[in-house]
C-alpha cells in the first residue's frame, strides 16, 4: 500500500549512526546509560571492572542514533559516542501513517 502524502523535504531527512565507546576503568555501575538509552542498545556486562562494578556493553552494534544522551547523563564521563556515518532515509521510513488512515471509535453514545 502506497502513501498519498510525501514530506516536501524528504530528500533532506537522514539518520546518524554512532559508535558507543565505553571507558570501563571509569565506570561505577550506576546504569544510567542503560536505563535511559532511547534505542536500548546497552546492557550490563557479565564481567566486573577493576573497581568491582559491572560496566555497560553494547548489545546491538549499529543501532546507536548518536543522540549523545548516554554521554550527557554519565556522572563519571565513562562513555562517549562517535559518529560513524549518515544515512539518507527513504520517504517510506519517514511517514508512519498508511494512506487510508485509522478508524475511530465513536464515544458519544
Features:
single chain; 109 residues; alpha+beta; Alpha-Beta Plaits; two-stranded antiparallel ribbon; 4 strands; 13% helix; 23% strand; elongated
Question: Explain this structure to me?
Answer:
By secondary structure, the chain is of the alpha+beta class. The chain has a domain at 15-88: 2-Layer Sandwich (Alpha-Beta Plaits), CATH 3.30.70.20. The protein contains three helices and four strands, in the order βαββαβα. It has helices at 32-36, 69-73, 91-94; strands at residues 14-22, 42-44, 56-58, 79-88. It has a two-stranded antiparallel ribbon with strand order 1-4. The chain has a two-stranded antiparallel ribbon with strand order 2-3. The longest helix is centred in the N-terminal third of the chain and has 5 residues, at 32-36. It is elongated, with a radius of gyration of 20 Å. The mean pLDDT is 81.
Quick structural gist:
This protein is of the alpha+beta class and 109 residues long. Helix content is 13%, strand content 23%.
Amino acid at each position: 500500500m502506497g502513501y498519498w502524502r510525501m514530506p516536501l523535504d524528504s530528500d533532506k531527512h537522514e539518520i546518524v549512526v554512532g559508535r558507543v565507546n565505553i571507558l570501563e576503568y571509569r565506570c561505577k555501575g550506576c546504569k544510567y546509560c542503560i536505563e535511559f538509552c532511547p534505542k536500548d542498545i546497552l546492557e550490563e556486562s557479565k564481567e566486573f571492572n577493576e573497581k568491582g562494578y559491572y560496566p555497560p556493553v553494547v548489545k546491538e552494534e549499529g543501532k546507536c542514533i548518536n543522540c549523545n544522551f548516554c554521554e550527557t547523563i554519565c556522572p563519571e564521563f565513562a562513555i562517549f559516542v562517535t559518529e560513524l556515518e549518515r544515512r539518507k532515509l527513504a520517504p517510506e521510513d519517514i511517514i508512519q501513517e498508511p494512506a487510508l488512515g485509522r478508524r475511530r471509535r465513536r464515544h458519544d453514545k
